[in-house]
Amino acid sequence: MNYLKILNKNEKQEIIRKLKLQFGITDISGTFLKSGTERLFLFQGEYSHKKIKNIDNSRMGLERIGIYFAKFQNNEIRLSIEATHILKDQIKKNIFELNKEQVQQWMSGQELNIQTNKKTFLVMKHKEDFLGCGKASEHKISNFIPKSRRLKIKP
Amino acid sequence: MKTKHNYELKQLFVERMQKLLTDKKDFQDYLNILKVLPVKSIRCNTLKISPKDLKKRLESNGWKIKQPWKNYPEIMIVENSLEPGELGRALEHLLGYYYIQELASMLPIISLKPKPNETILDLCSAPGSKTTQIAAEMKNTGTIMANEISLGRIKILASNLEKCGVTNTLITRKEGITLCKKLKGKGFEFDKILVDAPCSGEGTLRSSPKTYLMWNIKTIKNLSRLQKNLFASAFEILKPGGEIIYSTCTHAPEENEAIVNSILKEFKNIKIQEIGLPIKTRPGLTKWQEQEYSTQINKACRVYPQDNNTEGFFIAKFKKIK
Description:
heterodimer; A: 155 residues; alpha+beta; Archaeosine Trna-guanine Transglycosylase, Chain: A, domain 4; 2 domains; 5-stranded antiparallel β-sheet; 4 helices; globular; B: 322 residues; alpha/beta; Rossmann fold; Alpha-Beta Plaits; 9-stranded mixed β-sheet; 13 helices
């Protein structure tokens, strides 16, 4: 697990501070781990940092802890589909509500040609479904739905 | 004797199944059901959505949903015909609202009864069907250690845990026996352990016809040694008072009752437990060919496909005596 670094309290607070600015999120329970400089994982199990390090140092083949949560991109945080779902009750701003037709487009991996007057990450949602983040730019919202999670629309 | 997939059932396999199913009609029912595809069963991922809300959504998509077991509303069967792959392509599946899982494969976790805040080891965990079921029962609390030896299968496991929003799990990639030894050396113990052992897969013939081609008696004998060692190693790291499930998706007694029997002989601080399951099961065998097993083994459960229109399974539950 050498590539996963457990973040300390201050580093976690810094992430929450950014998420508050971006989406209004104020509290996340659990441990954050960073892979490289970009990818962030969240573990909400009860094993302490000490226990996790003990497992890692004992060569038990620790491959992953928790789930992929977010990615740092140009000093902003892009939440994964699961992260938007986990935090759905806390997300208060930069939300884009999709209509039924747009859900089909979005979940099939297409960018949306929509002017939002924003240049930031938006949480995409449709009613109670939270569908990850898109990046709003001048005339569109870029799509990050991974291939394995995309709807396959019949031609 | 051929199946609907046109695979020839091997003579020795047929003879062995006839010895397990001595009643002629029972054996014929078994052969008949092998020609029928299993039902389309799903498990609502309660980490993301309630069974009531999922049922409502799926029914609004035109699906006919049945909840076969009253006390387990999360378990559902899609009764209407679907296009090939439709179950996996649905938006609700892509969002992790349900997991496609065969009914019999849900039984080991129903038997294990995971509770919030426990520490659970899933020793042979890919592709993650049972790990995600454990996490849902634990409401994402406590800790699950999910182990798998194959890198390819770990990727599938990680992807399934992610899709289901499972945040309480550590994934390790280690040969199971070695992992248990290392855990023991470092003083780790678990409240509950699942040993869903690698097996010859005789119970999965309906959904995995390739098993017809791969089946041979040598594999059964080789697997038997591995299964026994996996179970014994896992038992060493079970907390006193803790519970362990040994399960396989095969009918071969060498991989089931023989393993349980040798464990009961080896350890004095173990007690086999009764299991209450929501389907018809048959007791574990106390005799197979020339071998006699402990009479306690009749507490184990054999699940035959013809009894409940499922796949085949074997499940035994044990407690470590304090």
